[in-house]
Amino acid sequence: MNATLHLLTTLLLCTALVRPLAAARWVWRSPRTGILLWQMLLLTWVLCAVGAVFAIGLSPYDPDIPTAVERLLAGTRPAGLSPWHLAVVGAGLVLASVLLASLAWSWVRVLHTRRRHRQVLSLVAREESALPGVLILDHPLTVAYCLPGLRAQVVLSSGTLSALSPDEVAAVLAHEQTHARERHDLVLLPFAALRRLLPRSSLVAGAAEAVALLVEMRADEGACRARCAASLAAALRRFNLTAVAPPPGAIGMADGAVAARLSRLGSALRPLPLAVRWLVLVTGAVLVSTPLSFLVV
To answer: Where are the domains of the chain?
Structure first.
């Protein structure tokens, strides 16, 4: 019961934190810290949800969940164990399997989509000596996106090169290269998988959108280190007016709430103090450690 109470309490706490964190503006000051906090919150929520179900089903055993699992597998049946408890344990197995399968399916689906898109790019895109490592699509509208992976590829349209100044193009490239270098696709994947699993959940949708915005802000930071914020903001305004959506499996220049990103670029927010960032990360680590302390021997 002790494990059940702790896991359920932490689960409710994580659930209650979603809306305030999604609406928070202080995380905009240090997007990387915000991304890590969201990842730890999601991991804690999943571990607590699965762990609480197992804790309820294994409550006749004592003292902890790993030992209870060992005794159950060994065939030990305490007096209080009923078919209902075994059904709850089965539900825990189903829940864990569904979550893992959803993540795996999302990953396989994304890999397949990217593979097909790379094949298409090999037929229709071209390279330019002035932009090494960048593929150019002959398209009149502004297009810029990163196709992530071990061999990440940045794609620009000829319309982008015509519409933007050289400094703006460089800022766009730095933005997309930050996505590729920091593997932001892996950050977004579990949130997208959970959103696909729970499409009607406003909490999950809010969390996924908040993380997507922080990912874009983090890429904006990378671009601002390479080029001035004014060049990136000018490019972003033009993309907001004329850009088309990136293909599935890619991360586009104009993804995320553009107005919020422009506001952040214009206000020149200072990063959170180092002590505050460490406090946030330690708090997230404490959250994750709660379910782990009950689920790991």
So the answer is: 2-295
